[in-house]
Amino acid sequence: MQKVLQRTAHAKAQAVRRALKRSQKNAADIRLRDRKTQSPLGNEMADEIRAARRVRREDRSLGPLAPRRDVGELQHTYGTMSPQRLQGFLKPVEKRAEAQPIVAGDRVVLVEGRDQGRIGRVISVDKKRHECTVQGLNLVDIAVPDWAMANEADKTPIRTMEAAVPLPSVRLIHKLEDPETGTIRDVVVQKIELRDVWHDRHLGIHRRTRIIPGLEEQVPWPRKEPREEPEHDIDTLRLDVEAQTWVPTLLTPPMPTSVIDELRNKYSQFRDRHDEDFVAKKTAEDEAERNKRKSLQEAATTPLQEAKRRERQERKARGFPELTPDMLAKIGEVMARNRRSIKGGETEGASVSIA
Known about the structure:
40% of the residues lie in helices and 17% in strands. It is α+β, with helices and mostly antiparallel strands.
């Protein structure tokens, strides 16, 4: 049975090592893919910065003779951005937060940029980039390419859209009651924490509570609109779903006992719960192996080892010796004599030191 347990433990440890190695490889693949995806965007931004610096130097050196830039192919798109620039760079996998205190539907205020101090409602939150899109704020002009307008009714080459804003550049707006006047007003929340993590392992849902530290005020999550599910002719009726078709009883189990082997894989190397017959069989095999090893050792013993073994068996059969009253009396006399000799030595040492 010990071999079975050791094999199971070894298989579990090996599976953990493989899972760790697989997760590390997946993380490396994700980093490589993100780097390849963000490389063109970074090159485009660098080219735009270099072009803007070159134009600035030309305008400064030429003055009134500087050429116009909004002509030719750039007549309608000069000063616009590409759609890829609406979002920032992806954050590394190890630096991405599992949950953000700001979600779609929250009212936030911008603390940086040209729209600093303006309030808007969050449209979406990108957890991979730690950014959010605020309705009506941080507007930019986007040059839509021709291939993107091929299947659209709107043929406008330039459109105004909301660009993403980094999450550290926004603050949550929450309504609080003024303790002095009693009026409810909007308050800018500088810091918010996520507490009381609740996890439903069956549905895979994580729920957290937003708390303002210091005030211990709970900030409710924005209410989501219920999703409308269209009805179809092939849908099962609610009456059929709620109809009771089976009545549980204690006389018969709901499923045969062999189902556990199908669910647990009777021959799996990770199995650590076994039937009583299997455990008894393996225990008997271990006992037979132990007896065989013992018989081989006895067959290979020398005469001296055999004599010592018989002596140990005889000593074990005799047990511990019992002390008789005479033995106890002699032990007491020896202890008293030793005590008197020790005291006499201490007194002699003390007299010598005084002299």
